[in-house]
Design a protein that fits this description.
The complex is a heteropentamer, with 1 copy of chain A (283 residues), 2 copies of chain B (367 residues), 1 copy of chain C (331 residues) and 1 copy of chain D (285 residues). With 283 residues, chain A is mainly alpha-helical. Helices cover 72% and strands 1% of the residues of chain A. Chain A is globular, with a radius of gyration of 24 Å. The two termini of chain A are 34 Å apart. The mean pLDDT of chain B is 88. The chains are: A mainly alpha (283), B alpha+beta (367), C alpha/beta (331), D mainly alpha (285). The complex binds adenosine-5'-triphosphate (2 copies), spermidine and magnesium ion (2 copies). Chains B, E: GO terms for molecular function: ATP binding; ATP hydrolysis activity; transmembrane transporter activity.
């Protein structure tokens, strides 16, 4: 049960075996995705046709590798841009929210807090359509009344960013709030007491304290944006982020090209996560 | 008086909604002295300190430093600094960064800051630790850094809010003595708040005992301990045997009392202890003498025979609990340090006595 | 300028795009889609977001009347001489709304059957896909062409009923019955052309309703597999060029149309998409193999039997949608 | 000072209000209004509850709706059952480095998108896929087996995708249970099972609830897993929303569907919170 | 002896990898007595306790309860119960649930459980709080519930692992006395561990002083305080002035010493203090007498004149720091409770003296 309590050996063995199986279950799908990126076949499946790097570096059809596939590279860039925008926006608003809820007691705070949590329990697709409906209403209204064509209110990257931002901000707020709650406010008072004004105190003391959470929230926001599908699906316009582009491809049939992209994604996010862990350890 | 006191509070009052946290408190602290405010949790100590530091506005009253009112001065401009209860050292900076923080805010040059920081580290006996991180220091060292961080700004008054609260017992004992000598070294006015009477007694020049937002008594440690003026002070400062009782007779400064438990005794009447009044009576365990024979104690105004109920051996601070034969009431009595009664056993008959002057009685309070 | 092109998979191969960019200096962004999603996207954007789209010719009049998502073509900008006249005329006719022309043809082809004759020799018509002996080895799309195809092979004429919602509903309900009955035989409903090809190539699927071009591609690898025109007739479609209402680079769009209709370029597209184009004379450049496959699949009577889609009147899609959902949900 | 505090308050309040009103509240209100609109002719609309009537009277929609809800609840329960022993193992049975390594391992699958994870399952489960080939090779089956395109495949995928969101809150709450409390349970005569039932599980309730809420939400709102792994056999509610919006151009009905989904998820989450005496702030915040 | 002791540990040893946490410890605790293990943090106290409770297996040695070895008995079957440092009350149950937990596990009927719970709540002076939640109780009340939860099971031995550690000072003082009377009331064997000497001294019948995994001395509080057998015990139990020094001469039980600071003194030689040996010397502040005149102290073996360095007023526990005229070294001296020297001022000349018997010296340890 816990190491200090004598437990029957059999139970211990069964339990450990179960956990081992669980990890096999976790790893298996990713492992096959990774492995078949190197299969020299048009279809990510057995039999093994031999090892190839064509799905990464191939230049000629049908085996055009990721690094020569313009549309995939473009989609990665789009995803990165969207992710960066979402990360910056949601961390900024999240930090502001964290300060608001942590520092001020005001009427309606409870209601606002629950409202702030709500995007977490709204299905992503509903978030997507509600934003799509609203922005279309506004855009159509502008067009009908003033013949103004508000392009940014039509499906496209702006809406994708807003749609993802609408729920990722909640997560950023929670992550940053959690750390701000651990902040000892007397540190700020100490700074005031030592001659800093309010803004300087926040800048020199509170923000450095929050930094690990801010960076953490930023990375999490970026990753979540990068892999978001449901909300994006409803809001995407002419330039699709990677998940949507891959989904469109997948509808056209699986090819090891998708395995190759997936493998790169795994490597990318592992790298990001490791950097994050290293950063958190350091501070 | 020629020079104004370093700190002077006049009729200071602060409300939080219904709560009257600080209630018409006035005091002044002469330059270079160590002033403590002693009181139980929630009595308003921190509130006073935060008003002085500028984090709270008084509801009414005035705060003057070196004779000039500071009410309109924002906290970052007041010539007072504060050592916080949990020290509030900045964990994201090293020691140098912490001590230099105030100097940087004042716009001092880098070189000057470095020099000053080294100087003050020297002064607190921790030279060369400037590059260390806060969490690489021991509790006592942090304590000193927190003080140095303030002292480097040369404040007129240093405020300390229970700075020893977080330390363990043995370290706290040591730091009491060290704090006092740091104050002497810096020669600055210290205003110290605590709920631990022994801290206040050991370190302070003067102590204010605070209760429910008001100062009950201000004086030296001896004043408070030997000459408490209120029932609260008598009970809060030092240990006492305590009874509720009524006055049966008053004669000069001495009252004849009967406790609710049935004991009769003579005590020094403080305040208006009129006949028939309900009073609180306090007798310190060390004020009670023990004898094997009633005759040994003939000189005392109050005498009692009983049996030893419990032996609370605690080295030099050993006590016994004496159960009165007459009423069954219990009294704590300190054993003499001489070890004369070390051989007492549970259930042994014993006689005790104490003088009326050592028993204080006050009009009964609610405390 | 940047040309944002909304098209089908295979219609804008990389080599063509590269050549176009090189010759005209425009940049091209390609988005792959299908009829429904093309129209949905354009509807959501009010006809913005793209500069050129390629819906089928039957999907122009209805949506345009209802949503106004296209803009009329300036025929003077288009080199009409590059088009096969009969196809150009047919498309113009089907895409004229309020006297304005909205579309010109690009690629045409048919839907029919892909059959692995070694495994499923008996499949000659759409309804043969329901043969229980093929359980777990059949696939088709769950889209309107399937409804139409099954209707024809059940001896009904859905095109005839286009104007009569009640009659159309009745036909569709019969098809629904059939498809639900057929469901246990189906392995999966495919959604993208290459997905189906993979299924057939790996042997997981032996008979399917699909586009002709896929069958020919498979035939090149495996002679057992080929496109078969169903006995009730293949369904003929023409995918077109239209200008979205709020497209911003009309010039680039016209340049693109004129560029890809050149016979040599059209042949490159045929190579990639597998289908013939409306470009006059491009067939000469097409590979002999493809021509042979086409002739193999389409004897003369089969060509005559092709059922060309008339424009879809508004409202039919709602009926079809209900049918499709019910088929999908049936257990 | 009071004035500057007030200014600060307003400055901090603005982004929150803008975000919540423009991206959450008004869009949902607008969607509600759209769902209450009926198309009566080309470009003509009027207010009515016709869309909701359609939802309630068309058995297909209700069936899909119920099916999605039931499958999501099932997926939530299965995830909980699988994750609990694992979380307990990580939180209480291993120590030190091994512990953080195991915990990190749990997170790894979630460093890639759901699409990739689902793709992995497709490669594993299909007729010519890895598992089928392995079974044939090992002689357990004689011919290829199709494991894709059925409800079991959907369940596998849903549970897989949700695992993290169950394991993390469970490990966190179980971690906060002082070992001494478990030891006290034993010391007072408890056995493994009674300690688990009376001490460990009651303590873990907030984590269980928050895990279940998130998992349920994610399953209900999932689109990729049912469409890709379920193939011909699953109509998921989100798929219907998608097809109403994208394929049918029927935004009005799609909006009504969206509202039904929102309502279902809110209701079940509310019921879950009520039953366990938790609050949203406590479990999510 | 007719009856076996309640608890007997024999040659108990426990290693953690390289660390020898408990090193060959043997002791026995007679039925109904209060036994304490006193030692600094990390010395192995908790390890012993957890072996007795069954949460750790001894590396070697035996544990017997009422004469029967319990090594093979799992923790939930051992006739001992434990009060954990942070109490480990079950927050998911109310008070009744907590106290009744063990009884439910034993399969007692509901009615009997309710009766027993009421009974024990009565006994610990908290009747009628059964329905409250754990977090609605004060620290002291929780303490008592934790004990009641164990006592209701009528264990042969109750183990307590620093149960007062989390309480504040005043409450701790009160609980010391209360714990002792609870033990008397339940008449059960208590094994108590603590690092606070005053807790151990006040409550215990016998105390084992533990250091680095070993018992240094086992005895009553008086034994430890007045007759320490090792340097570690002398320094850990009670306050002392302490020097390092060398033996210059030994005469009977008395050694002539010179401290490293230059003081000479006569002290009782404990253990093998041979000539020339390095020793630690301990003198308790209350063992030193003060006089205004050197002549007053003529009877003492050791005498010294100096000045008052600091006054540490602390009521009955007031001390002064005396700076030796000769060497400049400092000594802490307790002021007599009589208040005889209350008028001393800083810098006043003073004489002090103490007898050789009150100064203990031990072969120098590392402690
Ligand atoms: N910001 C506040 N709002 C409302 N009431 C407060 C506030 N700050 C303090 N109080 C109340 O004022 C009273 C005095 O509090 P204060 O913090 O000054 O006590 P304290 O003597 O410092 O106690 P402690 O020793 O526990 O620190 C208490 O009753 C407290 O509840
Ligand atoms: N599980 C363990 N693994 C390794 N070393 C341990 C373990 N438990 C205790 N120790 C080591 O054994 C020694 C004794 O620890 P123990 O907890 O018994 O001390 P303690 O006297 O109870 O101290 P404290 O007063 O701080 O509670 C310490 O050095 C400790 O680091
Ligand atoms: N490979 C792309 C095939 C495109 C087919 N368009 C078909 C339209 C059918 N209505
Ligand atoms: Mg305070
Ligand atoms: Mg311990």
């Amino acid at each position: 049960m816990i190491p200090t309590i004598p437990t029957p050996r059999a139970l211990r063995v069964i339990w450990t075996g179960y956990v081992a199986l669980f990890f096999v279950y976790l790893v298996l799908p990713l492992a096959v995705v990774a492995v078949f990126a190197f299969n020299d076949s048009q279809f990510p499946s057995l039999p093994w046709q031999g090892f190839t790097l064509d799905w990464f570096f191939g230049k000629t059809a049908p085996k055009i590798g990721v690094f020569h596939e313009r549309s995939i590279l473009g989609a990665i860039a789009t995803s990165a841009i969207v992710g960066a925008c979402v990360a910056v926006l949601s961390v900024a608003v999240g930090t502001s929210n964290a300060f608001l809820f942590n520092r001020y007691k005001f009427r309606g705070r409870g209601v606002l807090y629950v409202l702030m949590l709500l995007p977490l329990v709204v299905p992503g697709i509903v978030l997507g359509i509600s934003i799509l409906v609203f922005s279309s209403t506004v855009a159509n209204g502008l067009w009908d009344t003033a013949k103004i064509d508000a392009v940014f209110l039509r499906p496209g990257l702006v809406l994708v960013v807003l749609g993802q931002f609408s729920f990722i901000t909640t997560i950023a707020t929670l992550v940053i709030s959690a750390r701000l709650q651990k902040f000892d406010q007397s540190l700020e008072e100490a700074a005031l007491n030592l001659g800093a004004n309010r803004l300087t105190a926040v800048r020199t003391i509170t923000i450095p304290f929050l930094m690990p959470a801010i960076v953490g929230a930023g990375v999490v926001a970026f990753l979540m944006s990068f892999e978001n599908f449901n909300t994006t699906l409803m809001l995407v316009g002419s330039d699709a982020p990677l998940t949507i582009a891959m989904f469109d491809r997948l509808k056209e049939g699986s090819t090891p090209l998708l395995n190759a992209v997936s493998l790169l994604l795994m490597l990318g996010s592992s790298l990001l996560a490791l950097t994050l862990i290293a950063f958190q350890k350091r501070s | 008086m020629t020079s104004a006191p370093d700190l002077e509070c006049t009729a200071l009052t602060r409300r939080f909604g219904e709560t009257l946290a600080v209630d018409d408190v006035s005091f002044s602290v002469p330059a270079g002295s160590f002033f403590s405010i002693l009181g139980p949790s929630g009595c308003g100590k921190t509130t006073i300190m935060r008003m002085i530091a500028g984090f709270l506005e008084p509801t009414s009253g005035d705060i003057a430093i070196k004779g000039r009112s500071v009410l309109d001065v924002p906290p970052n401009k007041r010539p007072v600094n504060m050592v916080f209860q949990h020290l509030a050292l900045f964990p994201m900076m090293n020691i140098e960064g912490n001590i230099g923080y105030g100097l940087r805010r004042a716009g001092m040059s880098k070189a000057d800051i470095a020099r000053k920081v080294d100087e003050v580290l020297e002064r607190i006996g921790l030279p060369g630790i400037g590059k260390r991180k806060v969490d690489e220091l021991s509790g006592g060292q942090r304590q000193r850094i927190a003080i140095a961080r303030c002292m480097v700004l040369e404040p007129d008054v240093l405020l300390l809010d229970e700075p020893l609260g977080a330390l363990d017992l043995k370290l706290r004992e040591r730091m009491k003595i060290e704090l006092k000598s740091l104050q002497a070294a810096f020669d600055t006015t210290f205003v110290y708040i605590t709920h631990d009477q022994s801290e206040a007694l050991v370190m302070s020049d003067r102590i204010a005992v605070m209760n429910k937002g008001r100062f009950e008594q201000v004086g030296t440690g001896q004043d408070l301990y030997y000459r408490p003026e209120t029932s609260f002070v008598a009970s809060f400062v030092g240990d006492s045997n305590r009874w509720r009782g009524t006055v049966e007779r008053v004669e000069g400064g001495t009252a004849q009392l009967r406790t609710d438990t049935g004991l009769t005794m003579r005590a020094a009447a403080k305040g208006g202890a009129a006949k028939g009044a309900a009073v609180d009576i306090f007798v310190r365990p060390e004020a009670i003498r023990i004898g094997r024979d009633a005759a040994d104690l003939a000189q005392f105004d109050n005498q009692l025979s009983g049996t030893v109920g419990s032996l609370l051996f605690n080295g030099a601070a050993s006590r016994i609990i004496v159960t009165s034969d007459e009423t069954g009431g219990e009294l704590e009595v300190t054993l003499p340090q001489s070890g004369e009664f070390a051989d007492l056993t549970r259930g042994a008959p014993i006689h005790i006595g104490w003088s009326a002057a050592q028993a204080n009685c006050f009009a009964a309070g609610e405390g | 300028d940047t040309l944002r092109l909304l098209t089908w998979g295979g219609y804008a191969p990389d080599n063509v795009i590269a050549k176009f960019e090189e010759e005209t200096g425009h940049k091209v962004e390609v988005t792959m889609s299908n009829n429904e999603e093309m129209i949905a996207k354009l509807r959501a954007t009010g006809g913005g977001g793209f500069d050129l789209a390629q819906p089928s010719q039957d999907r122009i009049e209805g949506p345009q009347k209802e949503f106004g998502i296209y803009k009329p073509l300036d025929m003077s900008q288009i080199k009409t001489e590059l088009f096969t006249p009969s196809m150009l005329e047919a498309t113009k006719k089907n895409s004229t709304v309020d006297g304005e022309i909205y579309a010109v043809p690009h690629i045409w082809g048919t839907s029919g059957l892909i059959v692995n004759t070694a495994e499923a020799d008996g499949v000659k018509d759409y309804t043969d896909l329901c043969d229980p002996s093929l359980e777990g080895k059949v696939s088709y799309r769950l889209k309107r062409p399937t409804l139409i195809g099954f209707a024809f092979s059940m001896g009904l004429d859905p095109f005839e009923a286009y104007g009569d919602e009640a009659a159309y509903t009745e036909i569709m309900e019969q098809v629904e019955q059939k498809l639900i009955e057929c469901k246990p035989v189906v392995k999966t409903y495919w959604s993208g052309g290459d997905e189906l090809l993979n299924l057939v190539r790996s042997g997981e699927v032996v008979a399917a309703m699909a586009w002709d071009t896929g069958g020919w591609k498979l035939n090149s690898d495996n002679a057992d597999i080929n496109f078969v025109a169903p006995t009730s007739g293949a369904l003929g479609w023409i995918d077109t060029f239209v200008l979205p209402a709020k497209g911003k680079s009309d010039q680039a769009a016209y340049d693109y149309i004129n560029f890809v209709m050149q016979p040599e370029i059209a042949a490159m597209i045929t190579e990639s998409a597998g289908n013939f184009t409306a470009s006059k004379g491009a067939d000469e450049f097409a590979s002999d193999e493809l021509k042979a496959q086409y002739q193999g699949s389409f004897p003369a009577e089969a060509v005559d039997n092709i059922k060309w889609y008339p424009p879809v009147p508004a409202g039919l899609e709602a009926i079809e949608g209900g049918i499709l959902d019910r088929v999908k949900a049936a257990q | 000072m009071a004035a500057s505090a007030r200014l600060g308050f307003i400055l901090l309040l603005m982004p929150l209000l803008l975000w919540l009103t423009l991206l959450i509240i008004i869009p949902h209100v607008d969607m509600l209004m759209l769902s209450l609109r009926e198309r009566v002719g080309v470009g003509e609309y009027e207010t009515s509850i016709a869309n909701y009537k359609t939802v309630l009277t068309e058995p297909l929609y209700m069936r899909t709706f119920m099916r999605t809800a039931v499958m999501s609840i099932l997926a939530t329960l299965i995830t909980l059952l699988i994750a609990f022993p694992v979380s307990y193992y990580i939180a209480k049975m291993v120590r030190g480095r091994a512990r953080s390594v195991l915990f990190l391992l749990c997170l790894i699958p979630f460093w890639v998108s759901e699409l990739v994870r689902t793709f992995g399952w497709m490669i594993l489960l299909r007729e010519t896929g890895v598992i089928s080939q392995f079974l044939q090779w090992s002689g357990l089956v004689s011919g290829p087996v199709e494991m894709l395109y059925n409800d079991a495949a959907i369940m596998t995928g849903l549970v897989y995708t949700s695992m993290l969101f169950m394991v993390v809150p469970l490990v966190t709450t179980l971690d906060s249970l002082d070992d001494a409390v478990i030891e006290a349970g034993y010391d007072l005569g408890g056995s493994g099972w009674s300690v688990m039932r009376e001490i460990v599980i009651p303590h873990a309730v907030p984590g269980i609830v928050s895990g279940c809420i998130v998992v349920f939400m994610l399953s209900l709102g999932n689109y990729l897993t049912p469409t890709m792994l379920g193939g011909k056999d699953s109509l998921w509610f989100t798929e219907m929303i998608y097809s109403q919006f994208i394929v049918r151009f029927n935004w009005e009905l799609g909006a009504a569907f969206g509202f039904m989904l929102l309502f279902a998820s809110s209701f079940i989450i509310w019921a879950m919170l009520r039953l366990t005496g938790q609050t949203l702030e406590r479990t999510m915040g």
